[in-house]
Amino acid sequence: MDKKGKILVTGGAGYIGSHTAVELINQGFEVVIIDNLSNSHADVIDRIEQITGTKPAFEKFDICEEDKLEEFFIKHQEIQAIIHFAASKAVGESVEKPLLYYKNNIISLINLMKGMKKHNIPNIVFSSSCTVYGEPDELPVTEKAPVKPAVSPYGNTKQIDEEILKDTAKSDNFYQTIALRYFNPIGAHESALIGELPLGVPANLVPFITQTAAGIREQLSVFGDDYNTPDGTCIRDYIHVVDLAKAHIVAVKRLMEGKNKSSFEFFNLGTGKGTSVLEAINSFEKVSGVKLNYKIVARREGDIEKVYADTSFANEELGWKSEKELDEMMLSAWKWQQKITK
């Protein structure tokens, strides 16, 4: 297979990063990964090789360290694009440790942008989030929806990073940038070799569901059943991680082929369907055959009532569409959990 170019994936040992690295390699790209392993494991690199037959180059360091990043760029020539995942991402932790989040999530991007210019790498795809919309005024959420004041330092770092991309691209036409605003990624690769592996107590619903089913957690807490939704629980737009990964390949090709229509573009990535917490639990129970021990508890601070995407712009402009349904997402998450619990 002809190599299509060298792509740097920051945070490539992480959940979405590892799935994206797999899709890149499968499509003939050469992949180089930087990860400081603060929320991931080195053996993920070997698992990417098991799935694809190709081991990506891997460097362990923190891109907040500018001198190490400079050494990396000197060593790894001919990178054509960057997909930037590396960031701290737990909403609750960001409220407790705001300075850590501002340092990790903003300085890392600034360092990358400086290195891109110096080493002639014009293209960057940025891992953003639907948190930039806050509690939306209208559903489904289109790209025309206003960016609202962030409800957490984590959400604020995503907004600031998007502004950095936009302002830098505006000031210098060298930079070509795309921000992908994810809704809620879940599930795992069909091989069950990679998946979501949170260190410590999961902050996201699905790993908490699978860990409860596996007996690792005693009980799943459902935060509030008195929201203005059909069953009273919060609604989210869950998207399979492989569908999400494939969107990154489309975005990176768009930049490399010069098909982007402005130097800063952004797209919503979701399924366009809202799923409540109880619907997610029911889907999991159906596909796994496991009855979950869950309890309705008080609302959690910072939780948005309902949010789901209007994906028509990404569908039309990128020619990308999510494919996997909720039951399939849940089953893949459960197979992955069973594999790592053995």
TrEMBL record:
Keywords: Carbohydrate metabolism, Isomerase, NAD. GO terms for cellular component: cytosol. Its EC number is 5.1.3.2. SUPFAM superfamilies: NAD(P)-binding Rossmann-fold domains. The keyword Protein transport does not apply. InterPro entries: NAD(P)-bd_dom (IPR016040), NAD(P)-bd_dom_sf (IPR036291), UDP_G4E (IPR005886). Its cofactor is NAD(+). Coiled coil: none annotated. It comes from the Bacteria. It is an enzyme of class 5 (isomerase). This is UDP-glucose 4-epimerase.
